[in-house]
Specification:
Length: 284
């Protein structure tokens, strides 16, 4: 009698008559090469919300429903696909109401890149999953540039982790509206990556990654509330630098550590009142 494993791979051979056997037929084919086998991927089901409006009903996925409340979630590695989605949401919300704030929740490890011939993953600040290095940083900086380009103030809130490019986007929020939750983790570091090819091409990409490092250090210098020189920031980011909420607040990556949601609304209300008074004084 065949074993369960054997029966899963092929059908049993059944004798037709003496001396004659039915050919073995495979029920399915298993890949024999590691190159053709894909790594298993986790799948998280997306919740849906149904609302009754005017006698009818509308069904949204949870992220579309949050978008109606001007909430954008960055919950993944920053790559070109995620960047395109975040940029589109920011532009849509600005077109809907250019004066109302947008809340960007960040829980991101940044990104990764396959470096050189060793296929060794490296953490990279402005991340992308592929080489060459001149495309590594464009995805994250596209989000950053959009945040500073639109009229709507972008409130950034870190929960879980804001590492690598996630920490830069956190720091790039509207001044006074950059928050983190008490047990969130923030990590900053310098760019890293790899490239292989002709010697002249390697030299070109080496100069490019140094240019990117200088550019990113300048962004941190503009947004950190603790005044630091470029040399001090470069030394701080020489290796992976992990911080808790209190240390991130002290460094100036965030403006406040939140313990409850109401604090965000209270802070925005006070800021709106201050801006109103300033505007009234100028008009007078």
């Amino acid at each position: 009698m065949s074993s369960p494993t054997a029966s899963a791979r092929c059908l049993r051979t059944i004798p037709l008559r003496a001396g004659v056997r039915r050919p073995i037929r495979r029920a399915f084919h298993l890949p024999t090469s590691r190159a053709t086998a894909s790594a298993p991927k986790a799948w998280t089901p997306t919740p849906y919300v149904t609302e009754t409006v005017g006698g009818g009903w509308h069904t949204y996925d949870i992220f579309s429903r949050l978008l109606k409340e001007r909430i954008v979630c960055l919950n993944d590695t920053v790559d070109e696909t995620v960047s395109a989605s975040i940029v589109a949401q920011l532009l849509f919300l600005e077109a809907d109401n250019p004066e109302k704030p947008i809340h960007l929740y960040i829980n991101s490890p940044g990104g990764s890149v396959t470096a050189g011939k060793n296929d060794k993953p490296h953490s990279y600040l402005p991340s992308s999953p592929s080489i060459p290095t001149d495309t590594h940083y464009t995805a994250g900086l596209a989000i950053y540039d959009t945040m500073t380009y639109i009229s709507s103030p972008v409130t950034t809130i870190a929960l879980g982790q804001a590492a690598s490019m996630g920490s830069l986007l956190l720091a790039g929020g509207h001044p006074g509206r950059r928050y983190c939750l008490p047990h969130s983790s923030i990590m900053i570091h310098q760019p890293s990556g790899g490239y292989h090819g002709q010697a002249s091409d390697i030299a070109i990409h080496a100069r490019e990654i140094l240019r990117v490092r200088k550019q990113l250090n300048g962004i941190y210098e503009r947004h950190l509330t603790k005044k630091m020189t470029l040399e001090e920031i470069e030394a701080l980011m020489e290796r992976d630098h992990f911080m808790g909420a209190a240390e991130a607040l002290e460094l100036g990556i965030v403006d406040r550590v939140l313990t409850r949601r109401a604090e965000v609304g209270e802070e925005e209300q006070r800021e709106g009142q201050r801006e109103g008074k300033e505007g009234g004084g100028k008009d007078a």
